[in-house]
Amino acid sequence: MKRIYLALLLASSAFTGGCGLLGGDDEEETRSEILASGEWRLISFVSQTGTQPARSLIEACDEDDFFRFLEDKSYAEERNQRICSNATNFPPVALGTWSQTGDVETITITNSTSAGGMVLVGTWQVTELNNNSLRLTATTTVSGSTRVSTVEMRHQ
Fold it and tell me: If you average pLDDT over residues 143-149, what whole number do you get?
């Protein structure tokens, strides 16, 4: 009886565990695949220069815009229904390219359109990236002072 039970147990584990004969291999997505897996919505954009207080750079009209990092390394920022007053001269879609270092430790976004209007241009440190959220940080020097900008996005 014990031999029959052991044989059944071994046979069932071949179909449910191990290499997953019935379920196939479940490979985890790479960070690059996660970044390029859909639309990202801006939820926070904060900048602090030197010892000045941090200030938010996001307005209510920015909240329905979305950002796409495509697998072919093209990049798009799309303004939705609410257009900010300072963006009326910009195209509704700002196009560019993006590149990465390593396993998406940093990303560099380049504007491909001469009209401008792109929010995320330059090199950003990727401090968080998962299926739900993306956090980017950029450090620059402005008039001799260090500026730290942090962007948070939610995956749609």
Answer: 92
